[in-house]
Amino acid sequence: MASPPNDPDRIELSDIDWLKGSTLLPRAQDVSAGEGSPREANSSERAASSRTDIPDDKSRNDSRAVQNAQQQPPVVAMAPVQITVPRDPRDRTVNRKLRGIHIFMITISGVLGVGLYVRSGTILRIGGPVAVLLSFFFLGVLAWLVMQCIAEMLCIWPISGALIEFPRTFVDEDLAITVGVAYWFTYSIAFAALIAATAGEADYWYPGKAIDGVVLFFLIPGILILLNAFGVAIYGFTELVGGTIKLLFALFIIIVMIAINLGAGPNKGPRTELLRTGNVFPFDDEVADNWGTAFLMCLAIAAFSFVGVEITAATALEARARPGATMNGHGPASPSVKFTATWTAFIAMMIYFVAGLLMTLNVKWDDPGLPRVSWLGSPVQNSSSTQGNTNSGFVLSAKESGIPGMADVFTVFLLITALTAANTNLYVASRTLFGLTRELQYGRWYSYITWLSFFGRTNSYKVPVRAMALSCLFLWVPFLYLAPRNTPGTAIATLLEVLSEMGSVSCVIVWVCNVWAYIRFYFCLQKHQVALQAPEDNPTDQRFAHVRRFLYDEDDDRYPWRSHGQPVTMILALAGCLFVLIVANGASLWKGFNKTPFLTAYLAPLFFLTLWLVVKIYRAGGIRHVEWRLTDLSDPHAVKLKIVRLDDIRFRATVDEDEVQPPGWGNLWGLV
């Protein structure tokens, strides 16, 4: 029941106005105003947490209506007050146009990149056939475990910057900033790395560096940027087409690989004799002393293939509102979000496993054309071949089968796969940066907050083009590929390898932080399960029914979705991610130290921990003021405030779906 207006314990809406401060602001002072006191940026949350009552839906609506009415200019005739959900300014909002099929195809496009078609050959060369199957299987299971945790929170709060907000709410605000930077870096550098990968695939035809530089590194990125700038509706359509094509490509390649295994083509390859007579546990003795070490290296390489299964969280901001949702986030979970978040990892794992199995049946593990680890050199092609080099075991299989033109068709498929994945990565990077800077306020011109807030704005079509422009920061990286001395062991080759691998390692770090957030979220709900129930004097109060995971009425269960196998699932997910980061990534150093594998394995974690420490010290106003503790989830009232905050975020940064941009030069797609 709502408290009386003069109740001293009542929390007003102004006490939970989360736009007053941003997580990027230093706690010691208000940067934009140049004054303040320690922790002032979060004073509203601390003040609110000291009260004893949470306003109900009616009182919150009334308070919002009063605030909205006070902000309007005076009018002569008084009209009835219309109660609406307050929204962010128009230049901080996006359109909610993505349907379920768009979200699924965007995620599929991000996962099914060059990881399968290129990295699988490297895995086969290092650890043999069994390593290919087991590495894709175990990493697929790990990705599924991680997404079980993220998907459960995402079904409750499909919000802007979900992968940043969850660690912020349940772990640490400074960690959330670091996670946002790491996630943006993952996809901005992956965008550049995939553009560079197209040149590696195009080398099959020897196009020359002029074609690589002008067409692949300049014109094609420009086209991808233009497609993203048209608006989310057009972008969603392009991803629908691209994702469908990629799935059809994968099916076609699997069918052709089966045909090759059955004897298609004039050349008779090894076929299934590999499993009957060959050694299924071979390993490259130049990189490992035993098969177990080689397998651990393969696990680290396979992790790159599953980067992108969490993209569903990045699309949540622009997904259409789920039917039946209320202001507090009550209502059924979005079927599209739940399906994509929980099944994408499984679908990707099955495609990788089947395709990888067929490749191991058609290509010998020690084929000289298979790609090796970068610091050992490039693959050696058969001198009798009239074709160019390739980094893909699938193209190599088609080439050795002798089927006319099939290797060229496979190479075209790989080029399209890399470009569509690059398109997805640019979208994710721009939305991540937008979500990270959207709440920042303009202040003094020399304040870094003012400069960062520039990227938290959208244009007239609700596209964060400023964030998109900054996400192209690493587009200079592909041009290093054109250097005349770009050979294994050189500084340029090492830089290309390190930057590319840092992205996948950073993504696994983001997985770790969000699984950590889920673990604290899970035990928080378990600890406060009684406090989240409806009060005895108001049994119809359902404000927190959507977070009653443990105590609930089976006839009126409003918890959107419960992930499988908890709490075992979250423990396995955290342990698996840490194992990949610490053990598997370091296995390449066990035979001997090399700077390239060391930098690719540990530069990203070292940078992440350093940035987290720097952010903590800076926002605290000095190392002496740092609070070396995580977010306090022991107070049930403070937990309720955090839940209210996450509920409100859903409705702040979206515009009405029926808003249409009129045709004109300001709307290029409207003219088309």
UniProtKB/TrEMBL annotation:
Domain Amino acid permease/ SLC12A: 102-521
Any GO CC annotation of this UniProt entry: membrane
Keywords of this entry: Membrane, Transmembrane, Transmembrane helix, Transport
Top-level taxon of origin: Eukaryota
Ranges annotated as spanning the membrane: 100-118, 130-154, 175-195, 215-235, 247-264, 294-319, 340-361, 409-428, 463-483, 503-523, 568-590, 596-615
Comp. bias regions, Low complexity: 39-51
Topology of this chain in the membrane: Multi-pass membrane protein
Broad class of the protein's primary localization: membrane
Annotated region (Disordered), positions in chain: 27-73
Name of protein: Amino acid transporter
